[in-house]
Amino acid sequence: MARVSAKSAIIRTYKYKLYYTKRLRHIDTTIDIAGIIYNHCIALHKRYYKFYGKHLNKYKLQKHLTKLKKLSKYVYWKKVPSQAIQDITDRIDKAYKLFWRNKKQGIKSSIPTFKKIKSYKSYTLKQAGYRIEGNVIWLGGYKFKFWLSRPIEGKIKTITVKRDNIGNFFICIALEQEPKNYTASGKIVGIDFGLKTFLTLSDATQIEAAPRYYLAYLKKLKKLQRSLSKKQKGSNNYKRAKKALARLHIKIANTRKDYFHKLANQIAKPYQFVVIEDLNIKAMQRLWGKKISDYAFSEFVNILEYKTNLIKIDRYYPSSKTCSKCGYVLDKLDLKTRKWRCPKCDTLHDRDVNAAINICRVEASALGIGEVRPAIIGIPA
User: Fold this and answer.
1) Structural domains in the chain (count)
2) Which is higher by pLDDT, 122 or 310?
3) One domain for residues 198 and 172
4) What is the pLDDT at residue 184?
5) What is the distance in angstroms between the CA of the first residue and the CA of the last residue of the chain?
6) Where in the sequence is the domain holding 157, given as residue range(s)?
């Protein structure tokens, strides 16, 4: 069960958009070269794995790359900061360690693979290679302005330089900050996720099904995809059609994110603690497919975790089948059953409200807040 520490510092990442200038082509080139270095590292790892059956030590790999940069063939690699190259080797090393751990546990997994250069989107700097003054950042000897949409407060841990599919560039600044002072109301709320009703709170508040933004734009997406398929690959018309499609995907993602932030603010304002079940998103996707991807539960949970004291309880806890009044647990409860009557105390329950109350009660007991008795326990007979 995950809990938020009240004392330890936290890492928050803020995204800032760079002003458009011709100098951005230098960042674009740097990211391309970072992608080439990434693929070179993957090739070395694959060769090493083929001969020795284990992954290459990252420190040996870093020394090897340092020697390669001195050769005339690879001298252009020097455009990528050394810390960015170290970050590439670190990420590949972590991916291989995860592969070996999963293999030992019998979990199906695959080793890291090559990426298309234009699909490679970023590089990361940790302690050097940049300088920030106000809304100006120096990268690779070039000065860039960015929209300072919020103040940079805290110790800078990393800076990631990113590009998207439509030619926009961003810097993502990871800051070490003191924990946010959440609402000291002492109030706790349980939340149950659903498909017909997006959220059901333990105070019986129900948030109707979230807008399915992908479905809303599906007709337009299909039109743009058909238009793209008719263009000659590599032509200017193809590039324009591809950019129009990417722009629409970004619009869908941003519209959904805006809705989630507003909804999370609505929940965070009155409650100090928010309790949810640890959702098994992959299993839900197997059952309901694109609908789950469109609702984007994981994205909403991440935003909620940033804005509140979020606590997750065991996903196997029978929240829907347990009577919130007397504690009786049903043997079975069909997914189609939206209301059920407790055979022990004869209380009629709304499935989602009952689940939210039980989720809230479990963690309220663990936190020592005491017995949680919302205004609506069940639907009167």
Assistant:
1) 2
2) 122
3) no
4) 54
5) 35
6) 10-177
- The answer to whether residue 262 is domain-embedded is yes
Sign, CA torsion 223/229/234/236: negative
**pLDDT score recorded for residue 8:** 66
**Amino acid (1-letter code) at residue 314:** D
Does the pTM surpass 0.85? The reply is no
**pLDDT tens figures, 250-286:** 999 999 999 999 999 988 888 888 888 888 777 777 7
What confidence category does residue 7 fall into, taking pLDDT thresholds of 50, 70 and 90? very low
In-domain check, residue 359 = yes
Judge whether 373 lies within some domain: no
DSSP state of 79: G
Q: H or E segment at 280?
A: none
Tell whether 302 and 336 lie within a shared domain: yes
* Distance, CA of 69 to CA of 76 (rounded, Å): 8
How far is Cα 301 from Cα 285, in angstroms, rounded to an integer?
A: 16
Strands 155-163 and 348-350: unpaired
Model confidence band, residue 180 (pLDDT cutoffs 50, 70, 90)? low
What DSSP string runs through 239-294? HHHHHHHHHHHHHHHHHHHHHHHHHHHHHHTT-SEEEEE---HHHHHHHHTHHHHH
Same domain, 311 and 226: yes
DSSP 55: P
Q: How far apart are CA 133 and CA 223, in angstroms?
A: 45
Nearest-angstrom CA–CA distance, 319 and 296: 22
